[in-house]
Amino acid sequence: MDLDRALAISAAGLSAQSARLRIVAENIANRDSMGQTPGADPYRRKTITFATRLDRALGVETVRVARIGTDDRPFPERFEPSHPAADARGYVKTPNVDSLVENMDMREANRSYNANLAVLETTRGMLMRAIEALR
């Protein structure tokens, strides 16, 4: 029964980190997406929040995605009077995506994903050895 718990916890971790990686990838892909009309807002960075959830069948707490939100930090402005989204002063709002932050989030999510995958593989190996021992 404890191996079932380990599998459930690891699977939930894999799912959560996979969602986090998707959000980071979307942020990186849109870091240059600006509005096309004067004063239009550019792409706003997405954030992800996790929460624990009790798996009543196994009696363990697992992680889940609680909410996907947006980063409320203000948009940086860049002087670019020829851009279609430039305001009357010639400034364009740029996305509030910081490549350094996104890369760090990606590395952390990747490491967490790999750690959960290693636990899953180890647990699977233990189950296989237990089945072999029973034969």
Task: Explain the overall architecture.
With 135 residues, the chain is of the alpha+beta class. It has one domain. The chain has two helices and four strands; from the N terminus they run H-E-E-E-E-H. The chain has helices spanning 2-29, 99-134, and strands at residues 46-55, 60-70, 77-79, 91-93. The strands form two sheets. The chain has a two-stranded antiparallel ribbon. A two-stranded antiparallel sheet has the order 3-4. Helix 1 (2-29) runs antiparallel to helix 2 (99-134). It is elongated. The protein starts with a helix and ends with a helix.
Largest sheet: 2 strands, antiparallel
Q: What is the CA-based Rg, rounded?
A: 22 Å
Low-pLDDT regions:
none
Order of helices and strands: HEEEEH
Note the gap between the termini: 19 Å
Class computed from helices, strands and strand pairing: alpha+beta
As a percent range, the share of helical residues equals 40-55%
Strand order of the largest sheet: 1-2
Task: Give a count of the beta strands, DSSP E runs of length 2 or more.
Answer: 4
Total of helices: 2
- In what range is the share of β-strand residues? 15-25%
